Amino acid sequence: MPEPQDTADRWGHVEQLFNAALEQPLELRAEFLDQACGGDAGLRGEVESLLAQNGAGDWLFEHPALAHAALPEAPAW
Q1: Buried b (16+ CB within 10 A) or exposed e, 28-51
Q2: What proportions of the chain, in percent to the nearest 5, are helix, strand and coil?
Q3: CA–CA gap between residue 41 and residue 20 (Å, rounded)
Q4: Are the C-beta atoms of residues 17 and 37 closer than 8 Å to each other?
């Protein structure tokens, strides 16, 4: 089990990469994460999970709630 400081450092790194990834154009994020995560699949998974959650939240605010079911591009939750 990681020490608390190690966990805090890890989440700090995840947060930094998440914020940096948000600044990347959508089509360049995968390449950015390839370089930034250096093959650490766990790290990349955490960042991608946050990006996916962030994207779902953005999508919800961009579309009226009653129209979600009718939109063909509605995400499958």
Answers
A1: ebeebbeebbeeeeebbebbbebb
A2: 75, 0, 25
A3: 17
A4: yes
- The 10s digit of each residue's pLDDT in 12-53 is 999 999 999 999 998 999 999 999 999 999 999 999 999 988
Contacts of 36 (CB under 8 A, 6+ apart): 17, 20, 21
Tell me the Cα Rg of the chain.
15
pTM of the model: 0.65
- Integer Cα distance of 67 and 30 in angstroms: 30
